[in-house]
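Q&A log
Question type: sequence-to-structure
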Amino acid sequence: MMATTHALAGAVLAVVVAVVFPESAAATTPVPVLAAAALGGLFPDFDLYAGHRKTLHFPVYFSGLAVPALVAAALSPSTLTLSVALFLAAAALHSVMDAFGGGLELKPWLGTSDRAVYSHYHNRWIRPRRWIRYDGAPEDLFAAAVFAVPTLYAYDGTIQLGVYAALGISAVYVLVRKPMVVAAQTAVDAMPEHLVDRIPDRFVEDFR
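Response status: OK
Response body:
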């Protein structure tokens, strides 16, 4: 799924806390809490260029860390404790959600990969369910829009602008997702073999 979809999903966690606990920091000082939740939703994808969906994706361990962090935020409520808890919860949600998308191949609409996200706890790759066929698929944009609705409803001003910006980026990415692959294929085909050999396999293996 798109990074923006994960960020918007993370933000929903902050909205839920704000609605259920209207005296919490998620309701009274929403910007830092929402930012932490959205960043937690983005964080696992920081491994894009180094062992993607393995280096920073921890579906079990992030979930295990999120539980005591949420308990700590409930026992000692503050902007900091809630932000940390929602960061971890959003990172856990991201790691789990990736199992419902496509695989790691560069042309995921072909459905050739059996690797969705790595579980370090189980020491194996979790297979892709492909409910959302690939990042940037039309249904991925639909999911991003659905996740955006609660935040747009609950907040206004700068927060709404940020959500609309995320949706705009998502829409553009959906439009260019497949053309980018075509352009990359053309570029790889035109490159001398000795240059292609210097590119990490992950970025060219489906083009050779």
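Response note: The mean pLDDT is 93.
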